[in-house]
Amino acid sequence: MSGITNGVLPIASPRVRPARGRLRDEPVAGAKRVLLAAPRGYCAGVDRAVVAVEKALEHFGEPVYVRKQIVHNVHVVSELEQRGAIFVDEVDEVPEGAHLVFSAHGVSPAVVAGAAARGLQAIDATCPLVTKVHREATRFAGQGRQILLIGHAGHEEVEGTMGQAPERTILVNSPADVDLLEVDDPENLVWISQTTLSVDETMETVRRLRERFPHLQDPPSDDICYATQNRQVAIKKVAPDADLVIVVGSANSSNSVRLVEVALERGARTAHRIDYADEIQQAWLDGVRTVGVSSGASVPEVLVQEVLEQLADAGYRDIEEVRTAEEDLMFSLPKELRHDTSGTADERALGGRVRA
Ligand code: SF4
Prior knowledge:
It is an enzyme of class 1 (oxidoreductase). The chain is of the alpha/beta class.
């Protein structure tokens, strides 16, 4: 990914989108079709985080700073940057007293303290489902347990969750890590996880953990969030019938990358992740009758529609939606942004957004 500099942080996202090259409609044996997975795209946590930055710009004016990418999507970050958001890597890059939004992936208490020490006006757009995992970590650590956090090293969410109880938490990257773990007390362990993992791989990691540590305790409820699970269930239904699966999502979007992996595991002949429709290559369509399409939880639907337009150029005009769940969850805006005094309390909390 090429990066540009906005004067503060090299943002790996914005780019000039080239004129769309048309795909050719080459003949294949049988009728061409698209299986469009649903649910796909925006989840409640991403919607809330993006609206939080928009509302912060509206209420406080430019500039509004955002620590890290608000959500892991190059298009969304680019659009917000054009509207006046400035993305930074750490709080010490933000001028004292400025407004700073924490991203949907969450932050550690050390980051919150760092922002307070600089007198920053913090707006916490951490997804409530990530906050739930943070609370579990704090509670388990307070009970004197050692926490095995299943997640990917270096991911911002993992850094934020590890930071809740750094002395009591060990990161488990994959099933292969289990044999290498050194724990204080095998009888006093609990596992939690990143919210955007593969459900199947996580269950395999837990199975191996329990084999090694039979007294391992479970968290009270799933940490892999509803949106990640729903998108994986839908792509599992599509994949066995797909010669090709296209997942719209960015390279650093954990749940988008997992969708590609799950599609391949569940029988898709090939699968590719793309940010934009113009990345579809003619060669991917050779001999392909059925294309499965989905998108990660941080992807606006407009990008999926552009993919469908590209595929229509190539003869894939017959679109069948494969829906495995309905979603209507919406989260309230961060409290710092519930300024609008019109409407009911519920409407104010949703910031004028309309339930699907
Ligand atoms: S993917 Fe899940 S945890 Fe992440 S923002 Fe969306 S709902 Fe929240």
